[in-house]
Design brief:
Helix 15 (283-296) packs antiparallel against helix 16 (301-314). By secondary structure, the protein is α/β, with parallel strands linked by helices. It has helices at residues 6-10, 19-32, 51-65, 96-110, 127-130, 135-142, 147-150, 154-161, 168-171, 173-184, 196-208, 245-253, 260-267, 272-281, 283-296, 301-314, 318-323, 352-359, 366-374, 386-389, 414-417, 515-518, and strands at 15-17, 37-42, 69-74, 121-125, 188-192, 215-219, 334-338, 350-351, 378-382, 467-468, 475-476, 483-486, 489-490, 493-494, 500-505.
Length: 520
């Protein structure tokens, strides 16, 4: 490789201090035939890592693949201080047992990304040098920085200005992290944007110690599944590296289209021109490709193929496609829509745009589905009476539990005069009067379509009644049997007949997890 990997290493970086030094260091290492020492510090303050952590781990793996050595520093000593980065208050100090347990778990998970062979990975604990320092050593180290320099850190400055306490030991943390670089003779240090200050302290301390200053490569913080906030376990918008293959695939398929370029750039090696073309051509297929690429670092190809097949069968219209009943097969067919539990709102309703999106087998983008609704392409054609006279069932409750109306408007006479059959009886029959009560009289005229003059059409608050719906977020009660129109085009081609769809069920048989966990 003519540039010795320089251009590939720059991909995805937020900042490099400095690019010229990186190129020079790569050329020198190549000429002398030695490995660069690439440092990544890790405080084992939590036992699990997620895809956000792998952004930096993947950059370290790039260096390994170019023949260099990763030096992973377990911050068993600095964990006792607590990294103040991004904290509005002092971080709790962990016990030695907690630190060791977390470190072991972290190493097992990091090994899914890094090359753990002896010639490519060096593992160190910073207690090796920090634990041997006496108080005089600490004073000398503290004398290498001023309070003014420390207060340049945004989190320290904000806490100082708001008179939020800053413990003196927190001011020592950047110095301790920088001292790690001096002790392992780091050539390159990797970190997220929140570590920029700490990593640059290492450069200063190396210069003071007479060493060549390390190149600092800063990676952006990965946004989570919501597409807004950084990936975080506490926010629940994460994919863990130990999540099962089906969760990894399914959660990736759930991300907003706006995240695709960022995730491709930071989590894969797919060339920019390739992933941009895929996204422009078909966002849903691009997500499928992305999910397989992400999973390939964590699991075997066979496991990810199984995850993909499972997801498409359960949520992507695989069963409908195999049965030949998709919209593409026959424009006049009534498409059966099965609603994944993750797509339901907390109150059991579902947004109109999601119904439109699901009716198209998710082969249109979410933003396109929203535009279709806004343009008047979505219309509720018929709803069972229970959709407008009963409150929506909660997510954890199957749709059959939705209570039927007392008036037998939409029920055939047999539904209220015969004992319910556990197999053949429709869901509305579950609310029929008990045998001890006199049967309700049969209707004197044919039942009207929901929303017609003979039906109780008072909708539940915020739920659309039969007719055009132009608010993409309008909540629809997902009662089986609800029919709707979902646009006049399929796969980008306009057709004469609008797509007609019917809600088959609001639960998918065999769904692995509720929406609060799986996120898809």
């Amino acid at each position: 490789m003519s540039d010795l990997g320089h251009n590939d290493l720059l991909r995805g970086c937020e900042h490099v201090f400095t690019d010229a030094e990186l190129r020079e260091r790569l050329e020198k290492a190549h000429k002398l035939g030695h490995q660069l020492r690439v440092k990544l510090g890790m405080d084992p303050t939590a036992p699990d890592i997620h895809l956000g952590h792998t952004v930096v781990l993947r950059k370290m793996r790039q260096f390994q693949d170019l023949g260099h050595k990763a030096v992973l520093i377990i911050g068993d000593f600095t964990s006792r201080i607590g990294d103040p980065t991004g904290r509005s208050k002092t971080r709790p100090v962990l016990t030695d047992a907690e630190i060791e347990a977390n470190a072991q778990t972290y190493l097992q998970q990091a090994g899914r990304v890094l090359d753990t062979s002896a010639d490519k990975l060096e593992l160190r604990h910073n207690s090796e040098w920090l634990g041997k320092m006496n108080f005089a050593d600490v004073i000398r180290l503290a004398g290498k920085m001023t309070v003014g320099q420390m207060l340049k850190r945004e989190d320290f400055r904000k806490r100082f200005e708001s008179e939020t306490p800053i413990s003196v030991h927190e001011l020592l943390y950047p110095l301790a992290q920088g001292w790690d670089s001096v002790n392992i003779h780091s050539d390159v240090e990797l970190g997220g944007t929140d570590q920029t200050y700490n990593n640059l302290v290492g450069r200063d301390l190396q210069i003071d110690a007479g060493q060549p200053p390390q190149i600092v490569m800063i990676m952006p913080i990965l946004r989570g599944l919501d597409g807004e906030k950084k990936m975080s376990k506490s926010l629940g918008n994460y994919i863990g590296v130990t999540d099962p293959p089906r969760d990894v695939f399914g959660k990736t398929m759930s991300i907003p289209d706006a995240l695709l370029e960022e995730w491709f750039r930071l989590l894969t090696d797919v060339p920019e021109a390739d992933y941009r073309a895929r996204i422009a051509d078909h966002p849903m297929k691009a997500k499928d490709f992305l999910a397989r690429k992400i999973g390939a670092r964590l699991y075997s190809a066979a496991e990810m193929e199984d995850a993909a097949a499972w997801w498409h069968d359960s949520f992507g219209g695989g069963k409908r496609k195999s049965a030949g009943t998709t919209a593409a097969a026959n424009p006049g067919d009534l498409v059966q829509v099965r609603i994944p539990p993750a797509e339901l709102n907390a109150d059991g309703t579902i947004a109109a745009w999601k119904l439109c999106w699901l009716a198209h087998d998710q082969e249109i983008s979410k933003s396109e589905a929203r535009r279709m609704v806004e343009g008047g392409a979505f219309e509720l054609v018929a709803q069972p009476p229970s959709a407008v006279t009963s409150p929506p069932s909660p997510v954890a409750q199957p749709p059959s539990a939705v209570a039927a109306p007392a008036a037998p408007v939409a029920q055939p006479p047999s539904a209220v005069t015969s004992p319910p059959s556990p197999v053949a009886q429709p869901p509305s029959a579950m609310a029929a009067p008990a045998p001890s009560e006199p049967p309700a009289p049969a209707p004197s005229e044919p039942p009207a379509t929901a929303g017609g003059p003979n039906a109780n059409t008072a909708p539940i608050p915020g739920t659309s009644a039969v007719g055009k719906v132009t608010d993409p977020n309008a909540p629809i009660c997902p009662v089986p049997g609800t029919q709707f129109k979902a646009g006049r085009h399929r796969k980008g081609e306009r057709v004469k007949q609008p797509l007609m769809a019917v809600i088959a069920t609001a639960r998918v048989v065999g769904a692995a997890a509720p929406h609060s966990r799986a996120g898809f």
